[in-house]
Amino acid sequence: MRLPGTSPRYRLSPWSTPALVVIAVAITFLVTSGPILLAGANPIAAYAEFVVIPLTSRFTLLEVLVSATPILFTGAAVAIAFRAGYWNIGAEGQLLLGATAAAGVGAAVGDLPAIVALPAMLAAGALAGASWALLPALLRVRFGIDEVVTTLLLNPVALLLVTGLLHGPWRDPVTGFPESPRIAASAEFPALIDRSRLHLGFVIGLIVIAIAWYVIARTPAGLRLRAVGLSPHGARFAGISVSRTLIVAALASGAVAGLAGVSEVAGIQHRLTSGLSPGYGYTGIVVATLGTLAMPGVILAALFLGDLTVGASTAARSLGIPSQLGAVVQGVLLLTVVALLALRRGRSTRPADTGPAGAEPADDESAPVEEPVA
Amino acid sequence: MAGVPGSALALELRGITKRFGDLVANRSVDFDVVGGEVHALLGENGAGKTTVMRIAYGLTHADSGAILVGGRHVPIRSPRDAIAAGIGMVTQHFSLVGPMTVAENLALGRSTGLRLDLAAARRRAAQAAERFGIRVDPDARVADLSVGEQQRVEILKALARDCRVLILDEPTAVLVPGEIEVLFATLRSLVGEGMSVVFISHKLAEVRAISTRVSVLRHGQMVGTVAGATDERELARMMVGRPMIGVERSAASEVPGEAAPVLRIVDLRLDGPHGRPSLEDVSLDVRGGEILGVAGVSGNGQTELVAALSGMRRPVAGSVSVDGVDLTGADPRRMTAARVGRIPEDRHASLIPGLSVAYNLVMERLDDFRRGGRIDERAIQANADELIARFHIRASPDDPVATLSGGNIQKVLLARVLSRDPRVLVVSQPTRGLDVGATEYVRSQLLARRADGAAVLLVSEDLDELLALADRLIVLYEGRVVGEMAAGDADREQLGMLMAGRGRNP
Q1: Cβ of B346 under 8 Å from any chain A Cβ?
Q2: Which end of chain A has fewer CB atoms at under 10 Å, N or C?
């Protein structure tokens, strides 16, 4: 039945998105108090240590920003792809490719001034990340091969590529360590604040997010990307090239993830190491989801997870609990947010809204798109 | 087992009241159905028929009122409770799992243990086919079935759960005359076995043909319950409170259109499931200022024909042209650029429900709404304001399309298409599920386009609609054109025969 005007086909939930995230954090703390008790600590004290203490000193506050930097990039990268309905799980591999390119270019630029060296490195990293994202995207639009699997499986391949380089041609000739040569001084990101590790990458991350926000929210291309993400069939029907949109989203996502690698090499490590990323690409999925795929949300989520990361390591020292508890909290948080989002979707759309079965065969997520790739 | 009308109440609703915000969907509605009867619930769209039955099936909850099954109060909090109480419902939107087979869907409907008993499901389908004349291939994939066939699967599913009261929400909306007769035969055999059927409809002739009793709802209130044989005029008066107005074709319809065809389809062929073509050697012409009606039982190639003309399906052979320009295999963008306006049967899938009305209205031509590199939000809003006023869309520009009623969603699609002044209009089931007001409006718009010289291809399963609007009719059966006639010469019986695949002897 249709009630004129106010048909309750799709009532929006009373839970706003910020409220949902707050509820998720509360549930997470409740759930993780179990493991913390098992570790022999007081949960309240542990959470204070996780969340509040890092914000109370200059050093730890800056470290929070340092920790947030790579996941600003990977969070944005994942959010861009997810908004288009392209499930890029490969930010980790794309990051490693970006880092490799940055290490290569950074070492090669030698005497060139920073004004040349830095853009060259950023461009190379973005290109490398995008190229690592290209193959799964092509397989998806041409043959309907699920990108979740292909992007995920390329992550260990990227890591093998990195370790192969480090144990082969790039091994440090002096120390013999599996580390690439140090990049040129002009290729290093300058520190933003004296006596801290906070570097230019943080600002670049914010700029990238601002650009991504503008493109998605304000340009025709961004509207097309959202349309494809919300309803591929409806978008195709309206004349939007779904294939092209997915490929562009995948490449943009890969490029931004590649920049995360550049940022870590140029800002922190100054060389390529195999331990460069402790899973920043995967944390990007947490950041993007926690930020509800919105760019301002990505910033907040990255800062929050940065806070947790720093907090977990200080808590490990001051309370004597395993620092892995930080990862446990992150994992539970992701699951809680996903569960709450699913719950909200279930409440806001009535089951009768699904329509006749098979009415939209072209909406099959991983179906090959019936159009030529431009 | 009592199977006589007038026997024990199978289902009784007492004083059901339901509000949606300020709107009262049901106001203290009483309704009952006894064993062995078809009890029709008649009313216009928006009268509250579906809501009250959704309450009986546990899909919605009443603000107040009671539900009695077999004379006992039964709390129905969810469809699970309703099913346990022997109530089944076939809603307008089916709840089938598209990628699974019919047998698998049936087995899902009543899986008791861990085992999925497909053999039993297949056996049950065969039994139902024999006993009630419900014919469906148990091994067919549900997504490949027509809407009419999917409906049969839904009925089978309810039967498989041993329901005693079967609620059907506008079941004939997706069927054509031949199929309606089959459905009615099924319903008669069901009530013959003592079951109860609640038949929701707004079609007088059908209600009279099948019902033992008729209850009429108007504006959420029960007007009264009368015998099924009650005079049509009396039912109409109860339902609308005023005499019904039929759609009248304007006299101008006899004026021939332009001589040269605008839309020309030659020997079109499209692949279908199971290796059978879904369209085979379909040829047709539509002149400017003409409405060509496409009649046929759902699942005989209409969806594919519209998909091909929409640029969503690529034909394997044949050609499509508009004003002599070849558009064979064109994508949606080229189709719209060639001024082909497309309104398929599935409105939801043709729009982006998650985006606003304003964005959806410009989605086909975003490039016209840009200022520099960015979206021209002001122009998009102005465009939306104008079209909302012109097409009487009850929504504001920023409302997500998903929050609109079916009639308003259809108007959004109509506005998007007609605002581009199409040369060719491809329309499928334009008034399905719409209320009287919206239906008349949509039809008047189609006639207006025709008067402006557009070539209109109208696919509909509503014969009344085709006869009222079309100048010429073709009949599709199993993907082929099996008949063609001027609408003025068409007679229902002959059309029904053609649609059922019983054309006159060659």
Answers
A1: yes
A2: C
